[in-house]
């Protein structure tokens, strides 16, 4: 016999009953954008490699080290999406959504793939929720975005998270600031890797998580102190709206994002119960992304939340996010006659919107009652041949073990009324 197969390194399966938590987290995170009128978009899981090379940026770790790139049988270079924004932007441009009413507000959820070193909270296949508002540069929209992400976390009951916020300036003020920073970094004794990073994108050195690097950065010039009048006014307005929306934040002047296109508002949500991989979501405004993908020169703002990491946060806080696992009613047929009735009753209940299940295969009374107990149902319907001959079935409360005989003609209605009560 050959070795049993395993899921690839850095990936995992989500199985019942834990999968119910995953679904609850995913759906709770997407509910705020649905309520805010954002439209759902589905894009392919793979794109032409250029979409990410240009849309995420050649200099980023994601593009230079982490992409799953392959050549298909037609000789095209394709890449499994490492994030969801670039694909949404490609669709926005391809379908000329920018020529309609703006902003275009969209969301999506699905798999992302990165060849990263696996550890708790960092996987090679993970799920992201993504939300974007394209084509308008309005600070109220930045605040709406941040508030939508925060709402999802709050709706899950999460408390131990923090919103980090800053502004990265724009083309009018960032180049001067960048020079100041390059000058400052040039005077520091940095290791080879960090020096190289400083050459490609000096801002990213500020976000280095290593304490010894952070210690050297004391006194580094900060973008927020060098904002132009217009980007400062933009940032002030964002903060005013966030206050009005009741969303607290922490100023994080050294926060940068992996993408080179981020401008103005930039934010990240971190959770204190997750160890090293503490970011549960993040985003910001970007100018230039649309143009980089061959579209018009329009601004956009968006965020991505990691469903898997948010689930870890939910577990770290010991929250119960699954309202009710399992089914409401469980039907136990004893004998051939009863089997037909059971299949029909389960079908009727499901059609009426009641979750129901029955046993399959020959389980015997004991096995069937065990299955009923495990199903999560509050009630079981026991269909015995002798009862059926008398025209009744037993409706059993699985919590109190009390049961009553119900005439078959009333059975469906009685079950429905009982489990819905
Ligand atoms: P990013 O696109 O890197 O800003 O990531 C957005 C969010 O996706 C992060 O805040 C994480 O919650 C999640 N995420 C990113 N990379 C991974 C990964 N390798 N495994 C699990 N979650 C991830």
Radius of gyration: 27 Å
Q: Which strands sit side by side, in order, in the main sheet?
A: 1-5-6-11-10-9-7-8
CATH-assigned fold name of the largest domain = BirA Bifunctional Protein, domain 2
Structural class comes to alpha+beta
How many domains make up the coordinates? 2
Bound molecules: adenosine monophosphate
Write up what this structure looks like.
- With 421 residues, this protein is α+β, with helices and mostly antiparallel strands.
- It is 38% helix and 22% strand.
- The strands form three sheets. An eight-stranded mixed beta sheet has the order 1-5-6-11-10-9-7-8, with helices on both faces.
- The protein has helices at 18-35, 49-55, 61-65, 85-94, 139-155, 174-186, 192-200, 202-206, 211-216, 229-244, 289-292, 307-316, 336-351, 364-374, 385-389, 411-420, and strands at residues 39-40, 46-48, 68-71, 77-80, 104-113, 125-134, 161-167, 250-251, 262-271, 279-286, 300-306, 329-334, 356-358, 379-384, 392-397, 403-407.
- The site of adenosine monophosphate has 17 residues, from strand 6, strand 10, strand 11 and helix 12.
């Amino acid at each position: 016999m050959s070795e049993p197969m395993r899921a690839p390194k850095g990936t995992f399966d989500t199985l019942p009953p834990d999968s119910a938590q995953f679904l609850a987290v995913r759906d709770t995170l997407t509910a705020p954008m649905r309520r805010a009128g954002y439209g759902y978009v589905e894009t392919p899981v793979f794109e032409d490699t250029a979409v990410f090379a240009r849309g995420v940026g050649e200099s980023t770790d994601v593009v230079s080290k982490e992409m799953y790139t392959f050549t298909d049988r037609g000789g095209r270079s394709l890449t499994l999406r490492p994030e969801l924004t670039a694909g949404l932007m490609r669709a926005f441009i391809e379908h000329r959504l920018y020529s309609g009413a703006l902003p275009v507000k969209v969301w999506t959820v699905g798999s992302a793939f990165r060849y990263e070193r696996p550890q708790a909270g960092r996987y090679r296949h993970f799920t992201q929720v993504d939300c974007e508002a394209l084509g308008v540069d309005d600070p109220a929209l930045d605040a709406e975005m941040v508030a939508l992400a925060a709402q999802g976390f709050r709706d899950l009951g999460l408390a131990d998270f923090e919103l980090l916020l800053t502004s990265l300036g724009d083309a009018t003020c960032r180049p001067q600031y960048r020079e100041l920073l390059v000058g400052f970094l040039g005077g520091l004794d940095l290791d080879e890797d960090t020096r190289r990073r400083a050459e490609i994108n000096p801002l990213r050195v500020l976000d280095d998580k290593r304490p010894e690097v952070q210690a050297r950065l004391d006194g580094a010039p900060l973008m927020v102190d060098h904002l132009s009048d217009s980007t400062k006014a933009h940032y002030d307005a964002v903060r005013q709206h966030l206050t009005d929306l009741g969303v607290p934040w922490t100023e994080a002047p050294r926060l940068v994002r992996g993408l080179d296109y981020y401008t103005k508002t930039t934010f990240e949500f971190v959770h204190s119960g997750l160890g090293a991989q503490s970011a549960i979501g993040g985003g910001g405004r970007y100018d230039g992304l649309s143009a980089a993908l061959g579209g018009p020169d329009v601004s956009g703002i968006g965020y991505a939340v990691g469903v898997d990491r948010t689930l870890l946060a939910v577990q770290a806080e010991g929250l119960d996010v699954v309202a009710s696992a399992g089914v409401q009613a469980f039907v136990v047929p004893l004998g051939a006659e009863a089997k037909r009735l059971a299949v029909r009753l389960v079908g009727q209940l499901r059609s009426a919107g009641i979750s129901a299940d029955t046993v399959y295969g020959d389980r015997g009374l004991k096995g069937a009652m065990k299955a009923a107990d495990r199903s999560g149902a509050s009630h079981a319907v026991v269909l015995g041949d002798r009862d059926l001959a008398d025209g009744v079935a037993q409706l059993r409360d699985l919590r109190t073990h009390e049961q009553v005989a119900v005439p078959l003609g009333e059975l469906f209605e009685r079950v429905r009324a009982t489990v819905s009560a």
